[in-house]
Amino acid sequence: MVKVEPICAVCLLHRGYEEAELSTSDLGLRMRVMIELLKMVSERFSPNAVPAWLGAERDRLIRRITGCPDPYREAKRKSNEEALKLLPSVKNLLAPLKDPYERFRKACLIATAANAFEFGILGYSFQVADAGSLLTEAERSLVIDDTEQVFSILKDGKRVLYLLDNAGEVGFDLVLIEELKALGLEVRVVAKGFPILNDALLEDALFFGLDKVADELLTTENDEVGFTPEKVPSSLLDAYRSSHLIIAKGMGNYETLTEYPAKPPIVHLLKAKCGPIARSLGVPKGSLVVKLRKD
Fold this sequence. Notes:
The chain is α/β, with parallel strands linked by helices. It folds into 2 domains: 6-66, Helicase, Ruva Protein, domain 3; 73-293, Uncharacterised protein PF01937, DUF89, domain 3 (Rossmann fold), CATH 3.40.50. 49% of the residues lie in helices and 12% in strands. A 7-stranded mixed β-sheet has the order 1-7-6-5-2-3-4, with helices on both faces.
């Protein structure tokens, strides 16, 4: 499980102000955001709080005060466009590989490296223009590599539920989803139902043509950070429970899903972009992780 550390309070406020700046040029509204955000943090911040759940509360507060539904909309658009330019060269990385496991592992590495598409995290920066360099250090940055165990599960399974994380990153997820389909698996892909952070929405999945590759595109029908089973529609919960493997991208999904038993097995593909997540995983900050959890 991932609970807040003292630095998380600073990050909540830091990202909150960034989002307020993106949401409105009205200094009075920005002041209201910070006053209300300080109140929220003072009331809700405790050793047992889950960072992702506090982040969702923060973003709703900002949206309510500023009236801006999607402060990262432009950043997501640029991320998608840059990722689309890179897709042909990224797919070429798989061309020389013939062994199904080696192709799967490389696709996992590509999808995990792409978790770098993130904004507003204290002590971490990402420039869309640098997206092309993501794979240069990927192999050396992979600290936890459970791909062999995951591949074994897939050989015996049939249904995969793929939880997307960020826009832009989705283009690299496409590469892994195509490999899963090549293995004969049924793949359902889940996007967010409403804007939250720079997370991928249905429109971002459609931008990369995931509807033409996945067996089904679903949404959470909510604006939660990560994935909270009791807050999704019954049809999605059924798909979750009936899957043989959950592929969960990113830190938000890691923060929330570790609150629940890993039934079915869950593989987390992420970049540990902050200290608390890195410490939870026992890896250096900035590490790439393909971590399998199963109960």
